[in-house]
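Marked as duplicate of an earlier ticket. Keeping the data here for the record.
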Amino acid sequence: MHILFTKSQNSSEILVNKFISKGHQVTNFSIFNIKPILISDIDFKNFSSIIFTSSNAIHNLKKIDNINHLKCFCVGEQTAAAAKKIGFLNIQIAGGNYFDLRDLVFNTCDKTKERFIYIRGEFVSNDLEKDFKQKGYNLESIINYTTEPNTNIDPKLIDDLKNKKVDVIFVYSKRTADQLLKIIF
């Protein structure tokens, strides 16, 4: 079976390796290129918890000090692995989607005592900031990366897609699906 992943190598490495170990042909083509956004240093002492919906937000943190006290909420395993790699200790892992992450925080945190920082990309599928503020959570949102369409496309991949030589495509957002359609058609 030929499987296409549409995320960056860093973001899909665990799944890619699992499928390769099962004998599948895997292509990893990032539909978008990640571009860092320069931000001021973050004083993590001002927060009790941090939220990541993407490992890209973690990879684009430049200065990471005073994080040992933070509860770190991650959308899934890949993001948690990236958080652990840079030194986060108290990591809570959701089931791999926004709704599981939101519910994990809502069900385990006291909104009157917690102060959250949400590090994220410019484009998001769900409005975590709005949902948390509507529920009365103290949350600051910081954008530390953006994405641009990847124009460096292997012509063989386009040919494989058009000729239905790819059996499964992992698409992670509506924006990715829209860009993939532009590539194919």
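See parent ticket for discussion. The helical segments are 9-21, 55-59, 77-85, 98-108, 128-134, 155-162, 174-184.
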